[in-house]
Amino acid sequence: INAEYMGIFPNLRMAASSTAPAATTDAPAAATSAPTVDEICRQADEMNESERDKRECYTWICGQLALHPADPGLLWRTARAQYLAATNTPGIEPDVKKTQVYEALDKAQQSLALKEDDFQCNKWNGILLGEIGEYEALGKKIENGFKIRQFFERAVALNPNDASSHHLLGRLCYAIASVSWLERQAAAVFIASPPTSSYEEALSHFRNAENLKPRFWKKNLEMMGQCLYQMSRYDAAREFLDDALDMPQVTADDREAHASARALRDKL
To answer: Which residues of 155-193 are buried (b: 16+ CB within 10 A; e: fewer)?
Structure first.
């Protein structure tokens, strides 16, 4: 399975709440209680959505996880932070990145073992299992492809209103649909019935994401254009590619999506 699409978490841009410390006065400081796990999780989400260095976010949340090592919400958030730090650090050594990704997957698996009915735990297991495809043999990647789909489908079932889960399921379907005939023949050596999908199925998931949260992410519009192009629906592809190009480029993901949309649009 082409793991290129599965190692990219949709870093959804949302307005992050201010995390500035409260103002102090000359009065003696009152004793303050330690933050609750819910408060820690909210701050972790705000840090993740901000432009702060991902390594800084990871270091901070590791300290919080040490205080609450068996909390599933903190475990998957730490897995997210570790993955983003590993994949967004310029010049990171390949072996270091590999170790970090596998450690992130281990934390995600721990979170799922503690709370298997949490859509985020399922979603992050799917994301990270896809990310390690870069390091796994073909037979293992094919085996994991089935598991990744199960994780994303479970995430959608647990929270049908999460646009990013629908998007990820679309990305998986697109990757499977893009596998060549020769690659399928090679896959058949390892498993009688390799995963199958279609551009139509991928498009349906991207549409679901877009209907839930219109224009929530430039990449989703670009992928809709990619699917329609593969289906030879060129007029519709132009429409969605133009919509993608009209959206601002804020993150590195946005810039990559913009470049891909621009390259395909120029063919049309």
So the answer is: bbebbeebbbbbbbbbbbbbbbbbbeeeeeeebeeeeee
| Least confident range of 19-28, 57-66, 175-184, 206-215 | 19-28
Kindly calculate the radius of gyration of the chain based on its CA atoms and give it in whole angstroms: 20
The per-residue pLDDT for 32 is 67
Structure tokens that stand for 56 in this block: 């800084």
d(CA 264, CA 268): 7
Question: Is the distance from CB of 13 to CB of 251 less than 8 angstroms?
Answer: yes
Instruction: Tell me the residue type at 266.
Output: D
**DSSP secondary-structure letter at 36?**
P
Burial class (CB in 10 A: 0-12, 13-18, 19+), 205: buried
Q: Around 165, how many Cα atoms within 13 Å sit in the side-chain half-sphere?
A: 22
